[in-house]
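TL;DR need structure tokens for one chain.
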Amino acid sequence: MCSSALLPFLLCLFVQPLFAQFPGGGQFNAAQANVGRFYGKVVDEATGKGIGYASVQLTAMRFDSASRSMKPSVVAGQLTQENGEFSLENLQVLGDYTLKINYLGYATIEQKVSFNLKGMMGGGGGNRPPANNSGNPGSGFSAMAGMVDKDLGNIRLAASSQLLKEVTIQGEAAQVTLALDKKVYRVDKDAIAAGGSAEDALKNVPSLNVDLDGNLTLRNAAPQLFVDGRPTPLTLDQIPADAIESVEVITNPSAKYDASGGGAGIVNIVLKKDRRVGYNGSVRAGVDMRGRVNLGGDINVREGKINSFLSGNFNQRRSISEGQTDRSNLFGSPLTDVFQSTHSVNNGFFAMGRGGIDWFISNRNTLTLAASYNRGQFKSNDDLNILTDTLLSTVRRGTSLRNSDNARNFNNLGSQLLFKHLFPKEGKELTADVNFNRVRSDNEGIFNTSYGNGAPETRQKQAGDGGNEFVTVQTDFTSPLKNGLKVETGARAALRNFRNNNASYQFDYGDQDYVRTPGFADRYQYTDQVYAAYGTFSQSFRQWGYQVGLRAESSFYEGTLLETDSTFGIEYPFQLFPSAFLTYKLNNEDNLQLNVSRRINRPNFFQLIPFPDFSDSLLLSRGNPALLPEFTNSVELSYQNIFNKSHNLLVSVYYKRATDLITRYQFSEYNAFLGRETIVSTFQNSNSSTAYGVEFTLKNTFWKKIDLTSNINLYNSIVDASNIESQLENKQFTYFIKEYLSIKLPQSFTVQVNGSYQSRTAFAIDGGGGGRFGGGGGGWGGGPTSTAQGYSIPVWFVDLSVRKDLWKRTASITLSMQDIFRSRKTGSSTESAFFIQDSWRRRDPQFIRLNFSYRFGKFDVSLFRRKNNRIEMEGMEF
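>> reply
TL;DR here they are.
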């Protein structure tokens, strides 16, 4: 090929490697000649100086095998060097390209570029070398050699005047985003929750319910609570609503996610954070009808390779509640009826500070360091009036008054270190992170009871402290393969250490001091270790796709009663949790997904501790150290219809079956401390539970002014506890209805209405637990209500807010009222061989808050030096 004397030697050196890439023994195939190069320099239009770290992207039309059509595809891209230069290499020499250059603070430039070789092909179809039209046998190749290495010159970017102005909010993100695998709700747009805690925010989220004690349920089962994609020791009352950006609800997680939490799924709270270049933030302040204030603010600054963020919130709280309990005892002599009425006042505060930095080491590597600190103090005073009625003529009635003062303090220190690496291949990435949380708490309760018959007053005290450390280490790797294939793998270790030191005291009138009661101390330690690894394999086709996954977990936990020097432990060295997802696209609007999974619910600390809690005079509470984990198999079929961008329907049919269900159970025993037969509520593993139902979520937008989201859940639950008590079974059909309505009015007013109705419900299948002594689950006290012996009474409520946007929507003032009809009265009905009991409670009806917020920010060209286009804000990385 190069033997002709007419070809210069230097030309031979160029043409030989060029044709070496042509298949078919040297036949010219332009489509496979990847020898082209575009290069140039990006400069500032005003100063002529090079702009470093600008994004340069080259696209071309390519055939898409999935859609069988030509689509624009990114063929090359990079960030410019410090001096603004760039070089895009190994390009096909035929065809047209689109060059796009952008850099925040400048107007984006987009232009067509090509190597202009078509005219040199002699019109002959493109499968032979260029024709010689100059009389020089080598001139065609020489010209082509120069044209495939093309200098685009200096490309000038003009500063964008709009980006230099202060931030003006032009539009709003959707309040609700529906997908087959999860639902996302923008809590920062919820005006009713402003100034409150996560309890106020999550109770308005479709599919979720939050009771008066802060216990969270998803489809009537307690889900696993995450914050920013990782498990958290925080309770809902310890997280300010103003710090939350969104809530993600995952009803049936795949093998990629933590298998804990039973069949209830995962609720992930995404905290506010930004990575926009420049600075931006907000300040907030509010006051409620009882004179309690809430304050907050956050700021984000990004310049060059550093992004820093800082936020803080302070919330005061004064809560007033009332309740009543009526019980008929079916044991003892004589039989008695007991009537209790309560009035409680809770005062306290909680505060949260959070900050961190993102270091963009390079365009593909990011390191994040974050830390948070939570502090809270709650004090409550309860008055309990007790009337005891008997059928005896000699002792007909007895009255007593019980007053209790309780104090609880907690603090939580958390830290997080994250690393993320993006590979040159799009979608391929590696992440690794270490998370640490340390919780400390202390509590004290004084219980004084006076009697109407003149008997001496009894005085009792419970006091103690506790703490835990929680460490998680996790790494995840994602790699797309050919033909729509993708592999995801990861590993995780979770280590938790609990410590609890509580004791009961009886007042000695002789010594005029409290004396510790022997046998009623709770000095307890608990260690939990979970190690896991997972792998998922997925593939997408034109109309359908699938994902299969397998997660392996090994768990060990051990508890020690220090007072008696007794230990217990349960080990599950190796457990497998498979999952499978199948998605089918019926058409452009309709999608189907079928998924199956297996999950585990391990007993929590408060379900295990064998220490009696005397805070309820009618019902002692005690854990069971012999509890076993429960396992749940779940199947869910989802159908999504996207009518258009304004209307979206999601329907899910689900079935769940759990074995060794952790269940509340009551029994009677003689209590030496009280000197009488009493009822004890504890936990047992029942045979199984079955739940099945259907959930509808419909999102509508009318005339761009009205947003309406409707959520309806109908299900049936069956708890088989015949292994605990003969023929003990609880069946209950339940339905939930939730409505969210937002109306935009003239003069920048917005009205928001949230409503919820829950029918009579089987007690929640508990997976997360509530917390005595401020250590977990519940907010103001109380705990899980799982039982095979009762149900929750129906409850409904409506919340209302009015918001006025100010100053081009950079500020707003919001007036809200919760439970406007005083209808949120929660309660339960329980029937066993020992008693029949009905109770109800109501807290803070018609509660009013007034809040003000101001948002600020500026995209300042002088404030930054670079931008990483491939790193955007993530809500949850598992």
